Amino acid sequence: MAKLHRLVSVVLRLVAAVTAAAAAIIMVTSRETTNLFGLEIEAKFSHIPSFIFFVVAYAVACVYSLLVVLVPPGGAASRLLVMTDVVMGMVLTGAVAATGAIAEVGRNGNSHAGWLPICEEVHGYCNQVMGALIAGFVALVVYFLIIMHSLHAVTDTMCPCH
């Protein structure tokens, strides 16, 4: 049973690393230049702080997932990993939420604040940001599964009542 827990953990963490890396890479490469009223306007991820947060959070999640695969199962380290998994899940949730909110304003604007939508002008950029958000959400779901699996593995060893 311990080998199955370990295998599931490794597979989930590798999937999380790949999807987190994909989300960060897609966001980093999002860039488009257009002309608007004779002015050249460039849209790229580094112009928006929440997009930078997204990239950093998902890059850290990728590296963290790969490093955790090297931690031997059982013992105090695995209990600490449950806590860090929860923290990582919370950080990724914040990154997806912040990026999603800004992407929504970019796509639809905000008539109450007088903000116009920009996605009509930089359609490719907005589509790429949406792709990064989708990959980020998939990574977030995988992290949720990791947390549930880690909690099960830790509580299973603490309570031999099964």
Structural class, from helix and strand content? mainly alpha
Radius of gyration from CA coordinates: 19 Å
Number of strands: 2
Shape: elongated
Subcellular location: Cell membrane
Subunit structure: Homodimer and heterodimers.
Pfam family, one: CASP_dom
Transmembrane segments: 47-71, 80-102, 122-146
How do the strands and helices of this protein lay out in sequence?
Elements: H1 2-28, E1 31-36, E2 39-44, H2 49-68, H3 75-108, H4 123-158
Antiparallel strand pairs: 1-2
Helix pairs in contact: 1-2, 1-4, 2-3, 3-4
Subcellular location: Cell membrane
Domain Casparian strip membrane protein: 5-141
Pfam families: CASP_dom (PF04535)
Brief summary:
By secondary structure, the protein is mainly alpha-helical. It is built from four helices and two strands.
Structure commentary:
The protein is 72% helix and 7% strand. The protein is mainly α. Strand 1 (31-36) and strand 2 (39-44) form a beta hairpin. The longest helix has 36 residues, at 123-158. It is elongated and about 65 Å long. The protein starts with a helix and ends with a helix. The model has no long low-confidence stretch (mean pLDDT 89).
Features:
single chain; 162 residues; mainly alpha; two-stranded antiparallel ribbon; 72% helix; 7% strand
